C-alpha cells in the first residue's frame, strides 16, 4: 500500500491517492471526515481553521460503500482559495502588482530559504505553499483509510497530547486504552485532569499574548498488534524505523522515542528489557513494556507506544530576525495570522501517520487483495504464533 499527496496550502484543493487498499473494505466519506474534523480542533489554532471546513470527496476507488481494490482518490477543498485566487493562479503573471506581492523575506524555522535556494525560487511563496502543514490534512485522510483496515483485524490506534510546554498530562500506569481514546477527543485540549487542561490552555494563551508560540509532546498507542510485524532482515523493513522516519516527517516534529526512549541511557539493562513469559491462552507475553512494543524492528505483541516532540510554531507575532534576499538587508518578519500552538491538532496527525505505517507493514506481510483474505491470514498467523 502506498500514497501520494498533492496540493498547495492556498491552492484549490488537496489530493491524496491511496493505492493497494484491499477490495471489499467498507469505506465511506464519514469515516474520513471524522478524522479530518478532529485534526482541525484544539486550542491555539489561528484564524485559518475558522475558514476551512475539511470534508472529503471520494472520487475513485470506492463504489456503493466498498473499496474496489483500485486506487482511491480523496479530495479536500481549500475554502480559503477564494481569497487567494489571484495569488495562486496557474496563469502567467501579468501585472507589476503581482510581482510586488512576491515573497523575498524567508521566515526562520520554515522551509522558505532552503527551498528557495534549492529550487531557485526567488518568490518563496512557491516553497511555503507546499511546505505548509496544510498538507497534513491529506495525510490524515490516507491514515483514516489505514485505520479502517486496522479496525477489521482488531488493531486500534489513538493519539493524544502528552505535554504542552511545561504542563505534562497525567501519566497514570492504570490508564486504559479507553482513557487514551477519551484524551484524543480534543475539546479543545483533553487530558484526564481538568486542572491540567486549564494549565495547558493558559500556557497557550500566555504564549499568544506574548507574541510567542509553544510546542509539546504527542503520544500514540497501537493496541492489538501480534508479535513479528516488521522485519529484522533489512534496515528499511524495520517497522520502528519506518514509524520514526514518518513521525519526523510531520511538520515541526523534531524527535521521536519508543517506550522509555531516551531514559534508557540512564538505566541498567535489568531495568530496561521486557521479560518473556508464556501461557497457552495468550501465547508469549511480556511482564513490562518499557521498549514500547519493539525488538529487532518487529512488534513484540505489546502495545506500540511512541512519542513525538513538536517544536514551537516558527511564525511569531514577536518577529525573528532574517534577511531580505532582494536587498540582502536584515528585517524583522511580521505576520498576519498563525497558530500559536498546534500540538493538539498534531496528535491527530501523528495518530494517522503511525496508523498508516502499521497498516502498510501488515499489508506487506500478508496476502491482502481482499479484506477477507487479510482477515483470514491474520487469524491463522495469530493462532500459529500462540502455539509456537
Ligand atoms: C498541524 C500543524 C499546524 C501548523 N501550523 C503552523 C502555523 O500556523 N504557523 C507556522 O509558522 N507553522 C505551523 N506549523 C509548523 C510548520 O509547518 C513547520 O514548522 C514548517 O513547515 C517547517 O518544517 P520543520 O519545522 O519540520 O522544519 C504547523 C505544523 C503542524 C503539524
Ligand atoms: C492550514 C493549516 O495549517 C496552516 C499551517 C501553517 C504552516 O505554516 O504550516 C500555517 C497556517 O496557515 P495560514 O498561513 O494559511 O494561516 C496554518 O493555518 C491546516 O492545518 O489545515
TrEMBL record:
Pathway: Metabolic intermediate biosynthesis; chorismate biosynthesis; chorismate from D-erythrose 4-phosphate and phosphoenolpyruvate: step 7/7. It holds the Pfam family Chorismate_synt. NADP(+) binds at residues 39, 45. Its EC number is 4.2.3.5. It is an enzyme of class 4 (lyase). FMN binds at residues 130-132, 251-252, 296, 311-315, 337. GO terms for molecular function: chorismate synthase activity; FMN binding. Its cofactor is FMNH2. Keywords: Amino-acid biosynthesis, Aromatic amino acid biosynthesis, FAD, Flavoprotein, FMN, Lyase, NADP. GO terms for biological process: amino acid biosynthetic process; aromatic amino acid family biosynthetic process; chorismate biosynthetic process. It catalyses: 5-O-(1-carboxyvinyl)-3-phosphoshikimate = chorismate + phosphate. The keyword Coiled coil does not apply. Reduced FMN (FMNH(2)). GO terms for cellular component: cytosol. InterPro entries: Chorismate_synth, Chorismate_synth_AroC_sf, Chorismate_synthase_CS. HAMAP family: Chorismate_synth (MF_00300). Homotetramer. This reaction introduces a second double bond into the aromatic ring system. PANTHER family: CHORISMATE SYNTHASE. This is Chorismate synthase. The lineage of its organism: Bacteria, Bacillati, Bacillota, Bacilli, Bacillales.
Amino acid at each position: 500500500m502506498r500514497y501520494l499527496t498533492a496540493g498547495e496550502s492556498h491552492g484549490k484543493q488537496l489530493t491524496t491517492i491511496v493505492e493497494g487498499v484491499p477490495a471489499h473494505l467498507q469505506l465511506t466519506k464519514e469515516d474520513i471526515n471524522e478524522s479530518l474534523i478532529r485534526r482541525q480542533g484544539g486550542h491555539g489554532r489561528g484564524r485559518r481553521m475558522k475558514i476551512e471546513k475539511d470534508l472529503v470527496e471520494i472520487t475513485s476507488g470506492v463504489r456503493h460503500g466498498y473499496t474496489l481494490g483500485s486506487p482511491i482518490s480523496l479530495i479536500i477543498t481549500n475554502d480559503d482559495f477564494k481569497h487567494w485566487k489571484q495569488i495562486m493562479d496557474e496563469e502567467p503573471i501579468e501585472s507589476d502588482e503581482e510581482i510586488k506581492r512576491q515573497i523575498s523575506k524567508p521566515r526562520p524555522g520554515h522551509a522558505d530559504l532552503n527551498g528557495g535556494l534549492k529550487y531557485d525560487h526567488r518568490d518563496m511563496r512557491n516553497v511555503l505553499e507546499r511546505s505548509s502543514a496544510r498538507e497534513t490534512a491529506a495525510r490524515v485522510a490516507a491514515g483514516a483509510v489505514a485505520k479502517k483496515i486496522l479496525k477489521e483485524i482488531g488493531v486500534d490506534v489513538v493519539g493524544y497530547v502528552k505535554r504542552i510546554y511545561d504542563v505534562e498530562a497525567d501519566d497514570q500506569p492504570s490508564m486504559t486504552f479507553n482513557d487514551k481514546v477519551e484524551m484524543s477527543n480534543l475539546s479543545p485540549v483533553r487530558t484526564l485532569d481538568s486542572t491540567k487542561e486549564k494549565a495547558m490552555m493558559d500556557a497557550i494563551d500566555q504564549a499568544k499574548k506574548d507574541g510567542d508560540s509553544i510546542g509539546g509532546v504527542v503520544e500514540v498507542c497501537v493496541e492489538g498488534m501480534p508479535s513479528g510485524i516488521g522485519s529484522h532482515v533489512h534496515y528499511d523493513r524495520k517497522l520502528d524505523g519506518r514509524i520514526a522516519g514518518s513521525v519526523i516527517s510531520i511538520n515541526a516534529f523534531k524527535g521521536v522515542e519508543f517506550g522509555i526512549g531516551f531514559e534508557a541511557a540512564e538505566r541498567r539493562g535489568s531495568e530496561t528489557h521486557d521479560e518473556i513469559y508464556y501461557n497457552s491462552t495468550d501465547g508469549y507475553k511480556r511482564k513490562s513494556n518499557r521498549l514500547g512494543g519493539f525488538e529487532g524492528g518487529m512488534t513484540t505483541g505489546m502495545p506500540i507506544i511512541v512519542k513525538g516532540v513538536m517544536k514551537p510554531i516558527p511564525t511569531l507575532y514577536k518577529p525573528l530576525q532574517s534577511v531580505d534576499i532582494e536587498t540582502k538587508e536584515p528585517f524583522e518578519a511580521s505576520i498576519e495570522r498563525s497558530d500559536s500552538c498546534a500540538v493538539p491538532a498534531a496528535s491527530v496527525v501523528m495518530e494517522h501517520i503511525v496508523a498508516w505505517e502499521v497498516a502498510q507493514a501488515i499489508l506487506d506481510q500478508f496476502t491482502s487483495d481482499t479484506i477477507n483474505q487479510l482477515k483470514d491470514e491474520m487469524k491463522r498467523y495469530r493462532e500459529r504464533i500462540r502455539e509456537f
